[in-house]
Amino acid sequence: MQENRISIKISDADKATAQAAITTLKNTLAPYLIALSNDDRQTLPKMGDSNLPFVQKAVDYSVTNPQFVPAYIDVPELKVDVDAVGDLLDFFRPLEQVYSNLNDTIMLSGSEAYVAALAYYNSVKLATKMKVPGAEAIYNDLSQRFVKPSAKPATATPTPKTA
After folding, report:
1. What's the domain range around 114?
2. Tens digits of per-residue pLDDT, 70-128?
3. Alpha-carbon distance 102 to 18, whole Å?
4. How far is it, in rounded angstroms, from Cα 8 to Cα 6?
5. C-beta of residue 95 within 8 angstroms of C-beta of residue 111
6. Number of domains the chain is built from
7. Chain centroid to CA 30: how far?
8. 124: exposed, middle or buried (C-beta count within 10 Å: 0-12, 13-18, 19+)?
9. What angle do CA 119, 124, 126 make, to 5 degrees?
10. Is the pLDDT of residue 162 over 80?
11. Which of 22, 97, 125, 150 has the smallest C-beta neighbourhood within 10 Å, fewest atoms?
12. What is the tens place of the pLDDT at every residue in 24-62?
């Protein structure tokens, strides 16, 4: 028997409150957020937690020692970018924790549901083998989940004509 590790029923009021909060968050942050292409995500240099102190020191040094700032760097814009990272991280970190917990909760709930559905399927399968009335139609419907796609028939490759 499977251990029931989770059993949640979210009230309609809580669902509405959470959806409203998500909508407010999306609408509030929308003007500040962008979407990158997959190529951008792979090719852009990344500033993670380990690089943040380096970047902050470089900004500080660029202000106190401007003689070393290359002409193509706009220091005030650099500061805007660094400040944006800090501001966005203030939202991202708690949301990342919520996302992780949502993902884990969905995984556990889904796992328990899938295991129970498999147990039901196996019971119906056995009932079908035992010719229990009504089982075969259920089995035929549920068994579609386990039908493997057939291999595509090999198409004949035309033979090139020789002159």
Report:
1. 19-146
2. 999 999 999 999 999 999 999 999 999 999 999 999 999 999 999 999 999 999 999 99
3. 13
4. 6
5. no
6. 1
7. 19
8. buried
9. 95
10. no
11. 150
12. 999 999 999 999 999 999 999 999 889 999 999 999 999
Hey, what are 77's tokens?
């814009």
Asked if residue 160 is part of any domain, the answer here is no
Cα-Cα-Cα-Cα torsion 126, 132, 135, 140, nearest 10 degrees, comes to 70
121: buried, middle or exposed (CB in 10 Å: 19+, 13-18, 0-12)? middle
Q: Is the pLDDT of residue 163 over 60?
A: no
Please measure the distance between the N-terminal and C-terminal CA atoms of the chain and give it in whole angstroms: 72
Backbone angles phi, psi at 34, to 5 degrees: -130, 165
**What is the token pair recorded at 83?**
């400040």
Tokens of 94: 């708690």
Q: Please indicate, yes or no, whether the overall pTM of this predicted structure exceeds 0.70.
A: yes
In a domain, residue 161? The reply is no
Residues in the chain: 163
| pLDDT at position 151 | 73
Inside any domain, residue 154: no
